[in-house]
Amino acid sequence: MKKKILISDIAKDLGVSVTTVSFILNGKAKEKRISEGLTKRVLAHVQKVGYKPNELAKSLRTGKTKIIGLVIEDISNPFFANIARLIETRAYSKGYRIIYCSTDNQPDKTIELIQLFRDRHVDGYIITPSEGVDDTIQSLINSQLPLVLFDRYIPGLATNYVVSDNVRGAYDATAHLAQQGYRRIALVTLYSSQTQMQDRMNGYMRAIDSYKLQPYVKKVNMGDDEETTVRDFHAFLQDQQPDAIFFATNYLAITGLKALKHYQTPLPGVVSYDDHTLFKLFTPTITAVSQPIEAIADELINVLLNQLDGKIKEVKQIVLPSELIVRESSRGRISSTTS
Amino acid sequence: MKKKILISDIAKDLGVSVTTVSFILNGKAKEKRISEGLTKRVLAHVQKVGYKPNELAKSLRTGKTKIIGLVIEDISNPFFANIARLIETRAYSKGYRIIYCSTDNQPDKTIELIQLFRDRHVDGYIITPSEGVDDTIQSLINSQLPLVLFDRYIPGLATNYVVSDNVRGAYDATAHLAQQGYRRIALVTLYSSQTQMQDRMNGYMRAIDSYKLQPYVKKVNMGDDEETTVRDFHAFLQDQQPDAIFFATNYLAITGLKALKHYQTPLPGVVSYDDHTLFKLFTPTITAVSQPIEAIADELINVLLNQLDGKIKEVKQIVLPSELIVRESSRGRISSTTS
DNA sequence: CTTTTTTGCTAAAACTTTTAATACCTACAC
DNA sequence: GTGTAGGTATTAAAAGTTTTAGCAAAAAAG
Predict the structure, then answer these.
(1) Which residues of A touch B (CB under 8 A)?
(2) Cβ atoms within 10 Å, residue B128
(3) Per the database record, which ranges form the HTH lacI-type domain (chains A, B) (predicted)?
(4) Where are the domains of chain B?
(5) What gap in Å lies between CA A131 and CA A110, rounded to an integer?
(6) What are the tens digits of pLDDT across the range A242-295?
(7) How far, in Å, CA of A145 to CA of B3, rounded?
């Protein structure tokens, strides 16, 4: 009963050609010198019968889908979820839609997902690359597809990216702990060769050097289940007895806090890379390095849109500053010695 | 240089017709009695040259996109993000992809998004309906499109849905507080006519009746910014002096906890509807009504897939039990009188 | 040796839109 | 009366696949 209306139906109804209708619908009436009277008549009729062009057929013909593929590490991580949310809003206002998938940071899944998006002919790609996807990314670049990486980049690959200043962020966090009087400042990070992790490590080490401290580093296996990590982390605490801990990601911080709570360990100084809505609710509130997520989302969309418009050819590599948000969890040492 | 390979190229290369190649690629070789030798030859060649069918053309012809549209209230809310994640994984394993958007619970945005998905010819819909979208949902049903609602449903509309037992969950939470010795138990909820909110209110009221207590209800405006809500909520505390609070959603709980912290109010008994990873890290840990998100995701995909397979015609309305997870935040009254 | 059935494959239509090329008309100049 | 220009709309091809209907040859049946 609810037969789908085609452009040919419109044309037949009004006794004009399909082409004419198409031109008018695509705003080329002026350019193609179609009379104003006809233009209005067609538009009115389209409105009346509620005709909507078949987007699939349109995409097939034009090669444009108005869809952006978002390949993200994990949508249930608040940092990524919030960025995704902002990207979505901005893309939406420009007439683009988002199709997303989570990679779990697994190379094969990432590669598969990117291939999938290619099959679907998405117009552009926003990607948090996992390790080992260099060739796949390179192939996107070779095919001249609009692309921007974020959160991390691939060294040696001349591609657009937007990241935060991880070295600086980690330096600030560590230096802050040092200034608060902590001496045995540990870094908890992942086994990972990704740039954001390397950079956070570098920033930490630089601060350790500046303040002439000893490094204490605990590396965690991403794939391990939480329980294992909790035990593993606890053993590290016992062994190295740090008086402050800098967690390289928010989920490491959360796991760490769970371990501290579970073993009822007296809380050392704590800073997390990446903020979390609830960190300001903890007792004590948790100091964090906060990435500028609005700015990141803005730049990502900007860079991508510029490519989609065919405007810009040069490679954009954007590094945005992070901000250290000092809360109670990193002020223990001072207050305990001064009060 | 990297000319896209077409099915016609494959056919030409091997000196067979396009039809034959298509049959083989779609697993109809047997059915169409194509010789095994040829089948193998074609498959081998396709493999060799790395031919991939154009999904758009395929979709245009078949009317199937293998995409599921997920219309969700807010992807940055952990409850929804986690469900989205699980749905994504399950859909992926069945060969379906997810395209999602957040509605912010705004009717016009919701309607627009659903229309968008229709334009894109998604194969099925998973939707958290906002208020005032009855007609839009009805029109999906009229068009016989695979559809399942979740988290809430639309009363009087015979459509598939998966929700948790909100009445029971709210009753249990409230009853638990009563059993712990709290007497002035408040409900903090939204101005909302959505079923999940109504049901939680009902559950609360039923428990209030069972235990012969007085109700104390604070309604909050969803659109307000957090600061306003915090002040508003604080005024309610001053005014009504509840000794325990049941928050009807996790973000209300978070806002409420912020208010309590900000005004340094002594913590009353607290229960939140919807759990949160970090609730077990709080001091005190927060009691919560936990929805069975795995089960919800499973059922959603099941119900949708059954429709997509054309198997089932009857309407499925599934209500899953929630679980009360008792933590420290709701045990104050007892322990303070007994210890 | 003819008719029927089976086997193995193909031509052409269908999906819906965009766009390059072109046709037709009118008016005007030469 | 022919050529030219400009305005208005159309024809037909193209995008890349799936699928319907059907054909020729070989095998089986009579």
Answers:
(1) 2, 52, 54-57, 59-60, 65, 67, 74-76, 78, 81-82, 84-85, 88, 92, 97-102, 116, 119-121, 142-143, 254, 257-258, 261, 276-278, 280-283
(2) 22
(3) 7-62
(4) 7-53, 64-163+293-320, 166-291+324-338
(5) 9
(6) 999 999 999 999 999 999 999 998 889 999 999 998 999 888 899 999 999 999
(7) 14
